[in-house]
Amino acid sequence: MIKERVSNLHEVGKILVNKYKGSFVNCLEQADNSAQKLLELVITDFPCYRDEADYQGHKVAFYKRAQILIGDIWASFRGKGLGFFTDIDSITMFADYRIPQSLIHFGALKYSDELMAILKSGVELPSGSPEEVEIRACCIHAVSMVCEEVHRLLQEEGIQNLSINSILIDHFLWDYRRQHAEQLETIPFHKTRCIYY
């Protein structure tokens, strides 16, 4: 989808030049250290970041690329300066096609036999299809539950100076999948062609 991605780059470049004086820093400054404000700015001003689907008549918003943008800024600046957000914990995991493999491996997610058969067949799931939306949404929910459990365990152990959020869990799961690619390759992943991940 190189043409679509190049088109996205052109779109973003034009908006940055016309609305933000050619610098994303100006967008960051408008967000006033709020991850949610920055997310809203990005999905409002940059249409190619509007990762949304219709699921049984309801709008489902994933905003994977917009959230990973915010998460990467936060991580790159170690939560300081341009990467300081007062509400960074409101960002969800970045719903893609590889994290489910790690979640299944650890038992935090399980596919139905019917879905597993579809995925093993290698058939492409259309972007916005019920199966694709369900996989992505369940991953967000699973990581949120893992995050809650980690918070509970830290509190139980009296550990107060350690911060955890869905971004860090996503990074762990992504890295784990890469480091154990051969082992996790036996778990099928959904194949979807889109510009959102």
TrEMBL record:
InterPro entries for the chain: Q_salvage
Pfam families in UniProt: Q_salvage (PF10343)
Catalytic activity: queuosine 5'-phosphate + H2O = queuine + D-ribose 5-phosphate
EC number(s) from the headed UniProt entry: 3.2.2.-
Entry keyword annotation includes Hydrolase: yes
Segments passing through the bilayer: none
The keyword Hydrolase is assigned to this record: yes
UniProt keyword list: Hydrolase
Family designation: Belongs to the QNG1 protein family.
Function summary: Catalyzes the hydrolysis of queuosine 5'-phosphate, releasing the nucleobase queuine (q). Is required for salvage of queuine from exogenous queuosine (Q) that is imported and then converted to queuosine 5'-phosphate intracellularly.
Protein name (Swiss-Prot/TrEMBL): Queuosine 5'-phosphate N-glycosylase/hydrolase
Species in which this protein is naturally found: Timema podura (Walking stick)
